[in-house]
Write a structure and sequence with these properties.
The protein has one helix spanning 3-6, and strands at residues 13-23, 26-36, 43-53, 64-69, 77-86. The protein has 95 residues and is mainly β. It has one domain (11-86): Beta Barrel (OB fold (Dihydrolipoamide Acetyltransferase, E2P)), CATH 2.40.50.
Amino acid sequence: MTNSSLERRQRKVRTGIVVSNKMDKTVVVEVSRTVLHPVYKKFVRRRKRLMAHDEENRCNVGDEVMIVETRPLSRNKHWRVRKVVKEAALPGGGV
């Protein structure tokens, strides 16, 4: 085996805002990015809602979290919460 096949691939890391924590050990994280429109040359915001595994149920709505790609944990869940970057200002999550 070559050395490159022994090394693991770098996992994708994203930062987003928690929009739902109603499930057990799962949060929905909205990740935003800006892309340049190919025709109009205007920056457009694109959003993706990703389900992430939150083992200790420590995330609240409005928290900014860092998530990392992982093996499939369920039908829709392929990300894990790595850390809470910034907690929400309000405990209820006023986003």
